[in-house]
Amino acid sequence: MTDTNERHGDTPPAAPALPGIDRTAVPGGPASVGIPTMDGGRGGHPGIVIRPGPTGPRAALGDGPDVWEVIGALHALRGEDPTRHGEALLGELCTVTGLTAAQVSAALDYYTAHPGEIDTRISANNDAAERAMWSSTVVPGAPRRRRVSPGNTR
Predict the structure, then answer these.
(1) What pLDDT digit, counting tens, does each position of 92-124 carry?
(2) HSE-up (13 A, CA, CB side) for residue 17
């Protein structure tokens, strides 16, 4: 099957850079450990599956969390220490997520190819967390909702 870009002689857009991570520093990468392509036709991203969900399909590691969760952890680590780069950043990301370098590499590869999709998921999750925080905030003087236990009709 010919890629649409190849048929029209266009060059595909360049993948976004991932500052602080040298993609060549990932030992072996996902292909070297024999993770099969499981991406539901999303362009051959080994180790990635597309899972259904209430907000629509989402990319996830075949044996782990959603890609947006891994990339969200990456953004958080960069926010904590913007001077951390390369293998130190990759190692810390593996530590905080409990994932292997191959799994993190698979998530980074998917993010490189689909940054808008993943960034949208991260933003939606942050918005939902903020709404939840504000909805649980008690305002002094505001009427309180009475909790009713199951079976209690009073």
Answers:
(1) 999 999 999 999 999 999 999 999 999 999 998
(2) 4
- State both tokens at 85: 């780069």
Condensed to tens digits (0 to 9), the pLDDT of residues 63-89 reads: 999 999 999 999 999 999 999 888 899
Q: Is 114:60 a contact under the CB 8 Å cutoff?
A: no
Distances (CA, A) of 10 to 4, 6, 14, 57: 8, 6, 12, 29
What are the angstrom distances between the C-alpha of 87 and each of 27, 39, 101?
Answer: 10, 27, 10
- Maximum distance among all alpha carbons in the chain? 72
Rounded Cα–Cα distance for residues 110 and 60 (Å): 9
